[in-house]
Amino acid sequence: MNAKACLIFLMSLLSAPAVAQGFADLGTDAEGFAMPERGTTFRFPDDHGAHPSYRIEWWYLTATLTGEDGVDYGVQWTLFRSALAPEDGTGWQTPQLWMGHAALTTPESHFVAERTARGGIGQAGVTAAPFVAWIDDWEMRGREGRGISELSLSARGQAFRYELDLAADGPLVFHGDRGFSVKSAADQASYYYSQPAYEVSGVLHLPEGPVRVTGQGWLDREWSSQPLAQDQTGWDWFSLSFDSGARMMGFRLRDSAGGFTSATWIAPDGTTRSLPDGALSVSPLATTEVAGREVPVDWRVRLPEFGVDVEVAALNPNSWMDTSFPYWEGPVSITGSHSGRGYLEMTGYE
Amino acid sequence: MLLDVRSVTKRYPGTDAAGPVLDGVTLSMDAGQTLALTGESGSGKSTLLHLAGALDRFDSGEIHLDGVALSPLNDTERAALRREKVALVFQQFNLIPSLTVQQNMAFHARIAGRDDPDRLAELIERLGLDGFETRYPEQLSGGQQQRVAIGRALALRPRLLLADEPTGNLDETTSATVFDLMLDLVRDAGAALFLVTHSQRLADRLDRQLHLSNGRIA
Amino acid sequence: MIRATFLALLSHWRKQPVQFITLVLGLSLATGLWSAVQAINGQARASYAEAAEQLGLNRLSTLSMPSGPVTLDTYVALRRAGWQVSPVLEGRLRLADRFVTLMGVDFLNYPITVTPDAGQTDLTPADIFGKPGRLIASPETLTETPGAILPAPLIASAQVPYGVVLTDIGTAERLLDRHGEISRMLVLPDQAIDLPPIAEVAPSLVLLAPHGENDIARLTDSFHLNLTAFGLLSFAVGLFIVHGTVGLAFEQRRPMIRTLRALGVPLRTLTLLLLTELLLLAFLAGSLGLLLGYLVAAALLPDVVATLRGLYGAPVGGQLTLAPSWIAAGIGMALLGALLAGAQALAKLHRMPLLAAPGQTGWARASVPATRRMVPAGLALIAAGIACHLLFGGLIAGFALLAGLMLGAALLLPPTLALCLNLLARRARGPVQEWLWADLRAQLPGLSLALMALLLALATNIGVGTMVSSFRLTFVGWLDQRLASELYITARDDAQGAQLAEWLAPRTRAVLPIRYGETRISGLPARVYGIVDHSTYRDHWPLIASGPAVWDRVSEGAGVLINEQLARSDDIWPGDSVALAPGWSMPISGVYSDYGNPNPQVILSMDLLLARFDGVANRQFGLRIAPEDRAALISEIRDSFDLPASAIVDQSTVKAQSLRIFEKTFVVTGALNLLTLGVASFAILTSLLTLWTLRLPQLAPVWALGLTRRRLARLELLRSIAMAGLTAVLALPLGLALAWVLLEVINVEAFGWRLPMHLFPLDWLWLWGLALLAGACAALIPARRLLSTAPADLLREFSNER
């Protein structure tokens, strides 16, 4: 077994059959992992940190940026946690495994790097206060006493690196029912909150040289123990920031039937509306061949309740994350009823 | 003229004191002619025969064989000339011990590219070698071995047959029979015969005789 | 023309089937022995390379700490600085009755893919990373440890090198009881940009560039060089046979060749045809030789593998696999050998005049001046070998010395034999004896090549035999000294170790802890042992050099002992000092012999060891007890402690094991030795057969003068035995010289230890008998042939001028 096989296995948990459906009500699954429960109140800063009793968790930051050269860029910084058992501790045999993904997208190029680490030895982890999420030398570090509202972010790979400063310009946003985000008709769910309104500035180091950039960032925090239902094959996830100041998060979980959609409308003042299955509709407009498979990189996204009918197009259709668990993730531009920029993530396209 | 030897001189290295083996020898032979060269041991007659057969080189003079001058020829050309035109019968028989009678007889003709089974069968019959075809030389008597050698020579249909004491290793009776047979076959084939012998009796039966003494034709 | 001529040439072999078989067999033997050695070496080298590949040693640089293990903190610090490194913790783990190398890696970052063999249950990350973890090993390793009580389930994977058990680093540190330790770190190929220098992050780490050959390949180099030298010797001896038969075949076909040329086949064509024939025969023999080589290699491989594993811990698979290059090399050697052996004959053919000049000498009759020229040539070769050794030193120069000595002596053999025969002839009584010696002398040039082969084979036998026996004698004595404790015991862990020591103290004369730390000395992995002051060491330890008050100095911590290998390789002796780690040198008080260990080793006081090394395991003890109490104590320990059967080892068991490994080490040498001798006897036979064709003219007059054929045959036999016996006598000094070189030069260079030379006259006597037997066997066929020669055939020699 090598690292890659390991990770594929771990990530496949995301779409693995929920073995212990019957235990969902008890709050734990058969292996003792905790299960998200509706109505749980978040406690900060603790909930910015890791939840080792849940099977999976991530800190997922995307940013749409514009350089002083006028070129559009996208940046991704993600830390995944995956637990083999609902325990924490120190030493090699701690059952917490970590994986980091970093990407830098330009209209022409898409740079990707990946890091993996074992928990318990200090190589990777997340502390709540002061907030630090790290793997190797990659860091997302909160300013002392400011939770996650002011962050410095860094990562580097073989051909790129970036250092960004982020400052939140709005409150945290809780998806679904006060952060209890349902993922299927069968009540698979996760805890899910975001900070969708970072003002970002910093420097991207590209092979051609450094570029100063400014733009907008969006942080997703999510943890759960069995997020996908048995027949769900993948998802299409959108985080859109409109020029009007409003934002929306929407996803579709694809399955053998019509799929499961969910969306959150975020007004310019930060107030939210969670929308149930079916309120959001997404349909591919065009596909492109990436890494030997057809991936839709042009979408029609409609949220009739808020008059949204937009076309979402990839900045760089080749934003393929050639990592252990490959997927598509990249910045998009929005035209139609609303205009703006955002991020698109698609998994499960074989 | 089939063979034309002009003023040929031959020395062996390191034998200067004894003078040349051949000293300005001149002779000629026509096609179909038979010639006997007599002389005492060491008179140079075998050497002259070797020279005529392009087996060895001479120091001066010239030999023409069927119109071809021998001295300018290189080893390969000399080998080709031997293969094509000259057949040899030696006192020592010189059969190939690992080949059968039939294979030995066919051998020279075959390497010259003139394999003729009918001719071979005829020769085997005339040489009285019926029933010995699959024997090896060592299983034959001396007379039989020499008959095989004669057969090998004539199977080639040579222009010139060189024979060096062909019956020297045979007893008198056998010697006479073998010699008669050889002479008959040579005449029938229309070949020329250059015979080296010390036997006046054999020499008398040929068209011409020459006597070699101290390297000169007497 | 070509076809007919070629068939005529080939027809010779139909008439001479024995000659044909001899030629093919000779070349097959030569190729076979050479190929066998190559197959064995190739197999071992491939195993090393595979192991290096699988362990990531050949492509990746490694980082390690010269003073000991890398700490987990250092690893994390490097990681947090952005360096992509992958940790490896390595140690010895006992499975059933043998040790394996346990290699702990972080599977999340390990750059080499290891997948379980088909048919194994699927592994989940929880299996790998959790407790008890999984042990992954090659199926071969698994089959060799049947019934072992395993600390974790075993998974078979052919991708793991033999003798290595791969596991997660978390499992490894638990099983090895080395928590938080990392032996080395692999520097992964894809590093990020703008990284800080490693020296800034972790100043004391040492970066080793990727190396194609690992420690094992380097250690075993000398072993393989030894084998190669033997293979080459066998091949050379085999070529003597080929030379003999090819020469004979040309000689016998000389009249045929002359006739063919007289009949007009150009010399060029003939030469080419003979060359073609030779190459065809070589190809045939080469193919046969490969088959033979494969069989020999397959038969010897288990012992070689046992040696390599036992002596070096080298991971060598026991399954012989054949590379295409091996086949090509084998055939190539056969063709080259045949050309080499036939070159003289072909050259002679090319120079041969069409007409035989009177008194033409046969190929086998070298002229007297040629024999005389051998004296300066032989002396020059020996001098060159000695010069090479003196000027350059090292293992290769050592072998050059051997080669010079052997070849020079071989060249000196014919003149020496001629001298002996002259002396004998002078003392001869009666005409028959006179004729016998004269005849022998006349035959000497024709036989000399075969006799040289015999000389080399015999001398090698004596030399190698002396070395092995000397080594054995020394080794046994050394084992007696070194293994002074009656019992050796290994606890499960440190806690049990402490318990055991306490419990054992009142029940034994002494409990001697065996504890060590690992370091690198002169770039090699080395162990530093700590000892308590006890008379066992003072009385028994096999010191070969010591300064004043050596044991007092060691127990005071004022000096250390080093093993002979280290002393010789670095030329450091009592009075000098040795660097045990950066910034830590100790004066040397003594040097001890340490056979069978390829690496440096140091002994110092226990206090010093514990002060300098962290986390030294305390699990092994030597127990001094009255020998008769052994059984009782063993059963008492078993009753009181939860220990596997293999944890308590009797002194005699250890000795037996060590001796077994030792014996296996030289099984291959012995087998090659014997095969070489066989080949040499065969060479004599072929030479005698070659000469036989030239014998009749020489024997016929003797026969005519009144000797019976029976007597002549007896004399033939006697001649051959005399020659072989004389050669064997001359081989003795050469063999002893060889033994001296092996012990004083080759062993020191190859293994790092010098051994005293012991003499074994009984072995020589046995070998001498063997040589006489070889001579007799070789002459048997010619003698029998002579007996059955008809008088008429002998008479014909007179009637036929030849």
Automatic annotation (TrEMBL), chain A:
Cleaved signal peptide residues: 1-20
InterPro entries membership: AttH-like_dom_sf, AttH_dom
Top-level taxon of the source organism: Bacteria
Keyword Signal: yes
Keyword Protease: no
Keywords noted in UniProt: Signal
Domain AttH: 56-225
Family annotation (PANTHER family): BLL1000 PROTEIN, HYDROLASE
Listed name of the protein: Iron ABC transporter permease
Taxonomic source organism: Sedimentitalea arenosa
Automatic annotation (TrEMBL), chain B:
Keywords: ATP-binding, Nucleotide-binding, Transport
GO cellular component terms given for this protein: plasma membrane
Origin superkingdom: Bacteria
ABC transporter domain residues: 3-218
Gene Ontology MF terms in the entry: ATP binding; ATP hydrolysis activity; transmembrane transporter activity
Record Pfam families: ABC_tran (PF00005)
InterPro entries the record matches: AAA+_ATPase (IPR003593), ABC_transporter-like_ATP-bd (IPR003439), ABC_transporter-like_CS (IPR017871), ABC_transpr_LolD-like (IPR015854), MacB-like_ATP-bd (IPR017911), P-loop_NTPase (IPR027417)
SUPFAM superfamilies: P-loop containing nucleoside triphosphate hydrolases
Protein name, as recorded: ABC transporter ATP-binding protein
Source organism per UniProt: Sedimentitalea arenosa
UniProtKB/TrEMBL annotation, chain C:
Residue intervals passing through the bilayer: 227-250, 270-301, 321-343, 374-392, 398-424, 444-464, 674-696, 717-743, 763-781
Entry's localization field: Cell membrane
Entry keyword Iron-sulfur: no
Domain of life: Bacteria
Domain ABC3 transporter permease C-terminal, chain residue ranges per copy: 229-352, 673-790
InterPro entries (UniProt xref): ABC3_permease_C, Membrane_comp_ABC_pdt
Pfam families: FtsX
Location, primary (coarse class): membrane
Keyword check for Membrane: yes
Cellular component GO terms held in the UniProt record: plasma membrane
UniProtKB keywords: Cell membrane, Membrane, Transmembrane, Transmembrane helix
Membrane topology classification: Multi-pass membrane protein
Name recorded for this polypeptide: FtsX-like permease family protein
Native source species: Sedimentitalea arenosa
